[in-house]
Amino acid sequence: MMFFSNSAWWWPYLFILVGGWMATDIWRFLGVYLGGRMSEDSEAMVLVRTMATALVAAVIGNLIVFPTGALADTSLAFRIGAAGLGFFAYIVSGKRMLVGIVITEIVLCIGLYMGL
Amino acid sequence: MLPDISMPVDPSLSRRSYRRRVWLLRGIRAAFSLPGLILASSFIGFAALAKDAGLTLTQTVFMTGIVWALPSKVVLVGSVISNTALPAAALAVTLSAIRLMPMVVSIMPEVRTERTPRWVLYALAHCVAVTSWVVALERFRTVPRDMRTTYYAGLGFTLILFNMLVVAVVFVLAQSLPPAVSAVLFMLTPIYFLTSLWGSARERAVHVAMVLGLVLGPVFHLLLPEFDLLAAGLIGGGLAYGWHVVTRRRRAE
Question: Is the distance from CB of A109 to CB of B184 less than 8 angstroms?
Answer without folding.
Answer: yes
